[in-house]
């Protein structure tokens, strides 16, 4: 699953640490999501999309085999 977390976080002027604090996870979790090594729960995906001003569908791109 591809995502736009890094792109939208940077556009919002947020550091990984800032976004992590706002959504209640560690900075390492944000790094893992941005690098495609971790697929967040639906709840975390919702919190990320809300903080980044988009929808879940606008934040994550599902590809064949996901």
Quick synopsis:
It contains 5 helices and 2 strands, in the order E-H-H-H-H-H-E. By secondary structure, the protein is mainly alpha-helical. It has one domain: lambda repressor-like DNA-binding domains (434 Repressor (Amino-terminal Domain)), CATH 1.10.260.40.
What does this structure look like?
- It is a single chain.
- The chain is mainly alpha-helical and 66 residues long.
- The protein has one domain: Orthogonal Bundle (434 Repressor (Amino-terminal Domain)), CATH 1.10.260.40.
- It is built from 5 helices and 2 strands; from the N terminus they run βαααααβ.
- It has helices spanning 5-11, 16-23, 27-34, 42-51, 56-59, and strands at 2-3, 60-61.
- α2 packs across α3 (27-34).
Distance N terminus to C terminus?
Answer: 6 Å
Task: Tell how many strands the DSSP assignment holds.
Answer: 2
Looking at CATH, which topology would you report? 434 Repressor (Amino-terminal Domain)
Radius of gyration: 11 Å
CATH 2nd-level architecture: Orthogonal Bundle
Number of helices, where a helix is a run of at least 4 consecutive DSSP H or I residues:
5
Q: Which stretches are poorly predicted, pLDDT < 50 over at least 5 residues?
A: none
Give a quick account of the main beta sheet: strands, pairing sense, barrel closure.
2 strands, antiparallel
Look at the structure and give the mean pLDDT: 95
- CATH class category: Mainly Alpha
Percentage of helical residues? 55-70%
């Amino acid at each position: 699953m591809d995502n736009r977390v890094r792109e939208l976080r940077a556009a919002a002027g947020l550091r990984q640490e800032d976004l992590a604090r706002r959504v209640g996870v560690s900075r390492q979790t944000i790094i893992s999501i941005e690098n495609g090594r971790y697929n967040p729960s639906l709840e975390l995906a919702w919190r990320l999309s809300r903080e980044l001003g988009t929808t879940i569908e606008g934040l994550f791109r599902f590809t064949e085999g996901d």
